[in-house]
UniProtKB/TrEMBL annotation:
GO terms for cellular component: cytoplasm. Coiled coil: none annotated. One of its GO terms (molecular function) is flavin adenine dinucleotide binding. Belongs to the FAD-dependent oxidoreductase family. Residues 35-176 form the FAD/NAD(P)-binding domain. Gene3D superfamilies: 3.50.50.100. InterPro entries: FAD/NAD-bd_sf, FAD/NAD-binding_dom. Keywords: FAD, Flavoprotein, Oxidoreductase. This is FAD/NAD(P)-binding domain-containing protein. It comes from Capsicum annuum (Capsicum pepper).
Length: 200
């Protein structure tokens, strides 16, 4: 049984913008199932949609056609083939959900409206939009970006990495492992801060 308290964020009776045109999706022939609309296809939204797709009529509203394992992005920069495993089409893990590739522009009392003019009714709404970042919108484009990063790293005579945080440390290590003969210069304010974090 679906319990509204399960969700991180439920919107009821809250309108953000004026309503677009009316194209209505319905849950299908199984009347007992609740309509669950999930806005956002990051870790939180994808997990909720995957967990409920067999229990409810799930609609995932997302601007990108893929889910990305973002903590694998630095590995993908030095090994583009790895990106093919870390960039996953939503349809691959949501065979029983309806995927709507569009942005949500309006949330009303019982409906969500998208930029494409779709109107999707919900019984439960999960808002898991996370942060906005300009990026590739298709899986092919995203993998192509990693291929471009790889070619730049491969062709460079030397590489300068500025920053001693987790990203800078990991990227320097990934490059050093895959390109041991390449000159990598790592610039950070204080080595003490790095060792202090490691000790903790």
């Amino acid at each position: 049984m679906l319990d509204a308290t399960f969700f991180v964020c439920i919107y009821k009776g809250y309108s953000l913008f004026s309503s677009p045109s009316k194209t209505i999706f319905v849950a299908g022939s199984v009347a007992e199932k609740k309509n669950v609309v999930v806005i956002g296809g990051g870790v939180a939204g994808s997990l909720v949609a995957k967990s409920l797709q067999n229990e409810a009529a799930v609609f995932l509203i997302v601007e990108k056609e893929y889910f990305e394992i973002t903590w694998a992005s630095l590995r993908s920069m030095v090994e583009p083939e790895f990106a093919k495993r870390s960039v996953i089409s939503h349809s691959e893990y949501l065979p029983h959900a309806k995927i709507v590739i569009s942005a949500a522009v309006n949330i009303a009392d019982t409906d969500v409206f998208t930029t494409q003019g779709s109107r999707i009714r919900y019984d439960c709404l999960v808002v898991a939009t996370g942060r906005t970042k300009n990026s590739a919108w298709t899986k092919t484009e995203k993998i192509s970006q990693y291929q471009t990063d790889y070619e730049k790293i491969k062709s460079a005579k030397s590489i300068l990495i500025v920053g001693g945080g987790p990203t800078g440390v990991e990227l320097a290590a990934e490059i050093a492992v895959d390109f041991p003969d390449k000159k990598v210069t790592w610039c950070t304010v204080s080595m003490y801060s790095i060792y202090h974090k490691i000790d903790q």
